[in-house]
Each structure stands twice: as C-alpha cells, then as structure tokens.
C-alpha cells in the first residue's frame, strides 16, 4: 500500500508542476529527493514572472510526504485569486491537468473515504484548477466542500494558516461572482477565528478588517466600513507606531470612506497625514506604484469637494502626473486620465497658452489608446 501511495503522491506532484509550467513561463522548477521518500518539492520562481493570459495567481507551497501519513498542501496564498475569473473561459491550457487532479481526488476518496482530510486538501487543489480555467461556480462548490471536510475531520487546526488562505480565497471568489454577502460571512469567520485564537487586537486581524471594510464599501455600507477601518488603524498605530508607513494603508482607506460619507474636512486631514508619512518614508517623488500618487489623487478628490483653490489642485495634479510618468510611462492610461483633469482645470482658470499643448498631447494619447484597444 505504501508504494501505491508514494506513486500517486508523486503523480499529484507531477500534475501540479505541469499545471504551473503550463500556466506560467517559469524559468525553472526543482525537486528535492531525500532517502527513499519524497520529502519536499517546491517550484523555484524567478523574481518576476510573465504571466500568460489567465485568471488566477497560484503559488506552490512545499509538499511533504512522510511514511504512513501524506500531507497535501493546496496551491494557495492569501488573496491569491485574481478578480477576473467570473463567467468566462481564459487562454490557460490544462484540460488534461484538471482530469488528472480529478482522477487523484477519486483515488483518494477510495483509499481514505469521502470525509478524510486528505481528500479535502486534494479537493482544494482541484478548486484552484477550476478557478484558473474560468469555472468559478464549480471552484466555489469545491472550496466549500473541502473546508467542511477538513474542519469535520480535524485534519488541520481551524486557525492554521492553510485554512485561513483557503477561506480568504473562497471569500474573494464569492465577491467576484457577485455573492458579496456570502463572501463577507467568510471574511467575518476569518476575523472571529483570529480574534479567538490570537486576541482581539492582534496585528493578524488587520488583514481581515481591511478586507471586510473593502467589502462593505463595495456594497455602499460606508458606516460599517468606517468602523472597521478605525479599528484596524488603531491596531496598526499601536503595533508599529503612528509614523510608520504601514499605518497609511488603513488611514488612506478611511479617508476615502469619509469622503463618501461627505465628511470632507476629516478626510482631508487624514489624506494630508498619509501624504506627510509617505513623503518622509519614500521621498517626494516616490516609487513604486504611486505611494504618493494614490494619496495625492485621493487628496485632489477631497479638496475638489471642499471647493479649494484651482491653483492648489493643479499643483497636486502636476505632481501626480510626474509620478505616473516615471512609474507607468508617458503613454500610459493613468497618465491620460490625469491629463484630462489637468486640461479641465487649466481651461477653467483661463490659461490658454498652457491648455493647447496639453490638449494636443491628450488627443494623441487618446488616439493611441483607442488603437491599442482595437488591436
């Protein structure tokens, strides 16, 4: 029996690696063998992966096989699912890989029974394949069933990081297909488990608080989003200090939420504080990906609502444009959107000489962007 198990564990690993190699242009993959047993296998990723057109990010977690006990770990990472999987097939190949995973799942059911935790783990891996192939409804059913099996069998502790990752991926997928209420229930379960096992103000709870706040914001429940964001901000300030750049993530989200609640004065104060902390941490023209740019963009929206002077707004927009040009390139969509705003305020202030070259540049960018879309 042990030789049969060893064979199918190696088969499962091979299918997993084949699936990853089909899904990504990976530079290398390595297997580590020790003694007579397969001890560890891991995919060796280059620093940057160029992804084929597909709809899911998968991360290989080491698989350990030891005598008399097989531990299957799913290909999961916190928030590892893209939000572009709903209702469509993508270009990822791997039909045969999905069939292989299904065969392995069937075999595990025969060997261990329908309700064994190892079956739940294999089911989770199949759920990732279904998600990557653009079949979210089947992926959701598999995730839900696998979580229930693992929980009922006590195969993995309820507060284990693997279980947490599975719940977060399921919550994300539920939001993608428009089942936000169910997704929030899953995120609330994550938060309750973290608070129960690690304490109510443990830093680990911040991720779940932010995810829940984002979900409530999407459903326009900004009051509940505000409460969650204030809690997460309080925890972060207590954990890392009020001037650490890590506090700016919940702080900026809170500023945006207050903006939606028409509480623009407090929103402006928070956005300015985010700007101050990030300028101190990254510099006035910081990279990467607009650590300042997103704060400035938020500030522009808030100050527009407050009716601030157009010249102040123009200065902010020009700073945003400079950051975006360095980060995204001179012909990026982000640059085009900011140019639209600059042209509007330049025209509003009657600066004709400055308006025409900006408008000409904007027209060229629009034409190029339209051509790219048509291609």
Automatic annotation (TrEMBL):
List where the protein spans the membrane. none
- Asked if the keyword Signal belongs to this entry, the reply reads yes
Among its keywords, does the record have Ribonucleoprotein? no
**Which keywords does the record carry?**
Repeat, Signal, TPR repeat
Q: Could you say which residues form the signal peptide?
A: 1-29
Provide the Gene Ontology terms for cellular component: chloroplast
Q: Which domain of life is it from?
A: Eukaryota
Q: What is this protein called?
A: Kinesin light chain
What is the protein's species of origin? Morella rubra
């Amino acid at each position: 029996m042990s030789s049969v198990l060893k064979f199918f564990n190696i088969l499962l690993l091979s299918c997993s690696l084949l699936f990853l190699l089909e899904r990504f242009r990976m530079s290398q993959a390595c297997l580590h063998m020790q003694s007579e047993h397969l001890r560890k296998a891991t995919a060796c990723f280059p620093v940057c992966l160029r992804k084929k057109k597909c709809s899911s990010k998968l991360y290989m977690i080491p698989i350990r096989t030891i005598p008399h006990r097989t531990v299957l770990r799913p290909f999961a990472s916190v928030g590892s699912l893209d939000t572009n999987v709903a209702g469509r097939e993508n270009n990822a190949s791997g039909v045969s890989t999905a069939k292989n995973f299904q065969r392995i799942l069937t075999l595990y059911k025969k060997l261990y029974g329908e309700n064994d935790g190892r079956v739940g783990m294999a089911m989770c891996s199949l759920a990732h394949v279904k998600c990557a192939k653009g079949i979210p409804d089947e992926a959701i059913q598999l995730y839900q069933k696998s979580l229930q099996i693992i929980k009922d069998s006590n195969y993995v502790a309820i507060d284990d990081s693997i279980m947490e990752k599975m719940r977060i991926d399921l919550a994300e997928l539920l939001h993608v297909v428009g089942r936000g209420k169910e997704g929030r229930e899953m995120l609330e379960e994550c938060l309750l488990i973290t608070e129960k096992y690690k304490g109510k103000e443990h830093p680990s709870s911040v991720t779940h608080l932010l995810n829940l706040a984002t979900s409530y914001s999407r459903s326009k429940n900004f009051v509940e989003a505000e409460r969650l964001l204030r809690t997460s901000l309080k925890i972060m300030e207590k954990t890392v200090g009020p001037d650490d750049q890590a506090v700016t993530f919940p702080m900026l989200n809170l500023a945006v939420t207050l903006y939606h609640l028409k509480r623009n004065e407090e929103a402006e104060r928070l956005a300015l504080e985010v700007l101050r902390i990030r300028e101190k941490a990254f510099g006035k023209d910081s990279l990467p990906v607009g650590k300042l740019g997103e704060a400035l963009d938020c500030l522009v929206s808030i100050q527009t609502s407050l009716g601030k002077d157009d010249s102040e707004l123009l200065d902010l927009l020009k700073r945003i444009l400079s950051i975006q040009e360095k980060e995204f390139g001179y012909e990026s969509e982000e640059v085009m959107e900011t140019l639209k705003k600059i042209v509007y305020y330049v025209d509003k202030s009657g600066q004709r000489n400055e308006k025409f070259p900006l408008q000409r540049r904007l027209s060229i960018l629009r034409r190029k962007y339209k051509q790219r879309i048509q291609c």
